[in-house]
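Bit of a strange request maybe. I'm writing a small parser for structure token strings and I need a real example to test against, not something I typed by hand. Could someone generate the tokens for this chain?
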Amino acid sequence: MDQINVLIVEDIPAQSKKLTKVLEENGYNVVAIATTFKEALALFYGAIKIDIVIIDIFLNGVPDGIAFAETINTVPNAAKPFVFLTSSTDRQIFQRAKLTQPFSYLMKPFNELEILYAIEMAVEKFYAQQNVFLSKKENTVITDDHLFIKKGKSLKKVQLLDIVYIEVEEKYCNIITEKEKFVIMISLTKISKLLNPNIFTKTHRNYIVNSKKIEEIVPADNLIMLSSNHHVPLSEKYKTMIKNLHTLK
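Reply from user aminoacidic:
Good idea to test on real output. This should exercise your parser:
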């Protein structure tokens, strides 16, 4: 992406001014500042191009920032990444905010590097990988021997046996093949249920490997060496997977 357009949803002028200064000094384009729920919706669905939203959870003392995030999540094809900023330490507020799946949840007063890193990571995850699923309608299509992964405006066929391993990262799964990396919005638990358990095995709470790609297992180092110089961790909990492999002693 060239210049990234940011919508700020913040009702305190001093805070929005400080945030705008930091963003613009680092090459971001603040296209608008909304101070209310209605104003935020009007700007978000208006004619202005918005790439990412920074949302204050409390607007005029009410958690309308969460309500705004909940609303824009109801239209998957119009989805945009967003980051929460708040001074609230209320656990219930955090739990409600978490359900909207923000890319980051940052506390005020914000740290300049933290906000810049959060925005950069959100933009990279959401836009740099053109094959990220945006809605359930665009979900993975899996058959007995291959799957289709959204890439740009098309679905790319990927042979299941070409997958080396799958890694979960927050709400995404990274699917690693010999030649490519794909990012999909699906939980590791869900995708593991769609794969053949005789071939794909869990080695760690965050990893599933293709057992046909295993080249070496080093139990003492909690490590599995895979083809193409890949390696993944092997946690104590999943060392029983070794029993399912054909081994000679």
